Amino acid sequence: MSWFDSHCHLKTFWEKGELSAVIQRAQNASVLGMVTVGTSPKDWNIYSHLATEYQEMVYYSIGLHPGYVDEYWEQNTKGLRSFWDKPLPPVAFGEIGLDYFRLPSEEGKRNRMIDNQKAAFTKQLEWAKELDCPVIVHSRSAFDDCVNLIDASGLAWRNVVFHCFSEGAVQLNALLARGGVASFTGIVTFKNNDLLRQTLRLHPFEKLMLETDSPYLAPVPKRGKQNEPSYLSHIGEYLAENLQINSCELAAKTFRATRKFYRLPI
Predict the structure, then answer these.
(1) Sheet holding 181-184: strands in order across?
(2) Sequence-ordered strand ranges (E) for 100-191
(3) 3-state helix, strand and coil shares in percent for the chain, rounded to the nearest 5
(4) Which one-letter DSSP state was computed for residue 55?
(5) pLDDT of 124-144, one tens digit each?
(6) pLDDT tens, 190-208?
(7) What is the pLDDT of residues 21-73, one digit of tens each?
(8) pTM for the whole thing?
(9) Fewer Cβ close by (within 10 Å): the C or N end of the chain?
(10) Cα–Cα distance between 64 and 73 in angstroms, integer?
(11) pLDDT at 221 over 90
(12) pLDDT for res 102
């Protein structure tokens, strides 16, 4: 049985000198692949290095997360495209998108922040289209705007995953109808998330991806602790029981779906 963590952030473990142990625990838990996802220039080079050091176990993506977008976003994204010229390029563009969850209350500041996020997202979608690479979308309280900008970009929806999906059936069906997919985190294990579990059932298993989003969002029974890729096995085992399917079958389907999405050898 093999699991694949489609979305995590390894910088915290690397900074603490814990990464080797984290990787070993993941392997011990049958998590045999992971994508560490870039958010700003502060982690892009780190992740490029880690993908080289842990080849065939760790892959990486890079992008400017909406939380790091400001009026200097154009300057901060100047070096992005050059990563695809490396011997070991990123497997995806991301995470990129829109985040309206904590906007300033003052209207002028709020509008400027939204405008900057939209401009940065649009430009990165343009680059991703030119590169014809997968895109990891961060969408928080901004689903419709994200979808509209992707539609307008002309990017092939088969290259799009909405990570940490927490929307409802209407939104999931909007993605699936376009050819996009969703990735689900440990929040599906939370007691009060019956609606999200029902929504997940609508997603074709052949395209389903699971993620930890570690070090955030630890699943039950590790909730409240620092999350890590090894905990993906808890998410998978929980879902297998909830969906009444064999855990080995779920692992195989999600492992294959993730590698296929990121265009890795299957």
Answers:
(1) 3-8, 31-37, 58-62, 92-99, 135-140, 160-162, 181-184, 209-210
(2) 135-140, 160-162, 181-184
(3) 50, 15, 35
(4) T
(5) 999 999 999 999 999 999 999
(6) 999 999 999 999 999 999 9
(7) 999 999 999 999 999 999 999 999 999 999 999 999 999 999 999 999 999 99
(8) 0.97
(9) C
(10) 8
(11) yes
(12) 87
Q: What is the CATH number of domain 3-261?
A: 3.20.20.140
For 1, 69, 104, 153, the CA distances from 125, given in Å and listed in that order, are 35, 15, 25, 7
CA nearest to 22, candidates 63, 54, 70, 49 = 54
Question: Contact, 98 vs 138, CB < 8 A?
Answer: yes
Q: Which of 51, 13, 11, 18 is nearest to 35 (CA)?
A: 51
What φ, ψ does residue 52 adopt, rounded to 5°? -75, -40
Q: Token pair 């690479």 is at which residue? A: 133
Residue 169 in contact with residue 198, Cβ under 8 Å? yes
